[in-house]
Design a protein that fits this description.
Elements lengths: L12 E5 L2 E10 L3 E8 L9 E9 L2 E8 L1 H11 L6 E8 L5 E17 L12 E6 L2 E4 L1
Antiparallel strand pairs: 1-2, 1-6, 2-5, 3-4, 5-8, 6-7, 7-8, 7-9
């Protein structure tokens, strides 16, 4: 019997929840963290302003051109129903041979948007989806 093919093998970015792979995507946007700052002028110091770090902000993560299983759909369904469950998840980058080369840990996230492509029975394309998540932080995994 022929082994089942990995449905996410064609995608460079794989998504893990609870250490289990639940999706694959061709593009990930929003891996951004920005530390905001305030300027403080000290009396008698005229050659510079002090820069004080205030907080770090994180934009939403957008997973595009991919395929995800029912677990990610159910997670967003729960959010729609008012049961927001913040979860950590991993975005893992894989090379052409399928070896993991980098990973990011996205902390305390939940999905806020899910979109699919137009459905066309005459096309042989895989269902492409986009998932947007908000979160509290990004770390190297």
């Amino acid at each position: 019997m022929k082994p089942l093919a990995d449905p996410y093998q064609g995608f460079r970015f794989r998504i893990e929840l609870d250490r289990i792979q639940h999706g694959g995507f061709s593009r990930v946007k929003g891996l951004v963290r920005e530390t905001r700052h305030e300027s403080y002028r000290e009396g008698g110091v005229n050659d510079h302003e002090h820069k004080l770090a205030t907080m770090t902000a994180y934009g939403p993560i957008v997973l595009e051109r991919g395929l995800a299983d029912d677990r990610m759909w159910a997670w967003h369904e729960a959010v729609i129903e008012g049961r927001v469950e913040r979860r950590d998840f991993v975005v893992a980058l894989h090379d052409a041979e399928g070896n993991e080369v980098w990973r990011w840990l996205i902390e305390q996230a939940f999905p806020v948007k899910w979109s699919g492509t137009d459905l066309d029975a005459t096309s042989s394309q895989v269902m492409v989806e986009s998932v947007e998540l908000v979160h509290h932080g990004i770390r190297r995994g």
